[in-house]
Amino acid sequence: MKKAFISYSWEDEEHKNWVRSFADRLLENGIEATLDQYDLDPGDRLPHFMEQAVTNSDYVLIICTPTYKEKSDARKGGVGYEEHVITAELLSKGNERKFIPVIRKGNVSNALPVSLAGKLAIDLKDGAFYDRNFDDLVAKLNGVSQKPPVNKTAVVNNTIPKKKTSNADEPIHILGIITDEVTE
Q1: In terms of pTM, does the model score above 0.70?
Q2: pLDDT at 159 over 70
Q3: I want to staple 68 with a disulfide (CB 3.0 to 4.6 A). Which of 9, 16, 168, 175 is the partner?
Q4: What is the rounded CA–CA span in Å between residue 165 and residue 32?
């Protein structure tokens, strides 16, 4: 089971609830989501939790909003501290794909911190593509390729496969014969 730490800014209750619902949905889809709302108890040390969560996770899902960008770029609060930990791991290990920006509000230019500039982000703003993009994210976290396999028949015959239609009234047409494969 893949582990994913969710990094986000404490904004309003609506945003915190969205993040919790996002984590719930990841858990329902077989991703072990680490989230402060689940995994911290009163008396726990926040910096230690953040360090361990970033270090011990397979992925860090960074919930990007304009507020997150502002805090991250200014290194303010918990988001700023996590930014230090994330940057340190990027510099020491170079595992770029571990850190995935998830756009919750805003867009690439006003929601992604400077440290994530140029990275491909997952758009999970509420809208028409939310479900498809969420499914793509889960597939990526589980290492499942979304790319269809190469049609080896087309490559061998150097042809483009045609759409098959079945019309009983249409006569049969022979398009070609591969003589190497014909036997007596």
Answers
A1: yes
A2: no
A3: 9
A4: 45
